[in-house]
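Please review this pair:
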Amino acid sequence: MTLDDLDKAFIDLWMHPNQLPALLDKWQEMVSEYLAEIEQTEAFVKEYETYLHRWQLILAKNRELMAQEQNGLKSQLKTGEMKVDPTVIARKFRSE
C-alpha cells in the first residue's frame, strides 16, 4: 500500500455517500495500519503532510456542502406547499 493508494481510496469514499461513516472509519483504519508499517523518514513525513493537508481540505469542503444540502432540505420542508387547501383544514376543525 502507498500514499497514492490511500488517496485513491479516500476519493472513492465520496462515491458512496450512504455508506460514508462506515467507509471513512475503514479508511482511517487503513491509514493507521499503513503508518504503523511504514518507515517514517523525513521525506515520507513531508509527503504524508501534503496528502494529509489535501484530505483535511476535502473533508472540510464536503462537510460544508453536506451542511448546505441539509439546510436546503430543511428549508424545503418548512416552506413546502400544502397539499390540502387551508380552508378545508379550517372547516374540519370547526366541525369537530
Remarks:
- The mean pLDDT is 87.
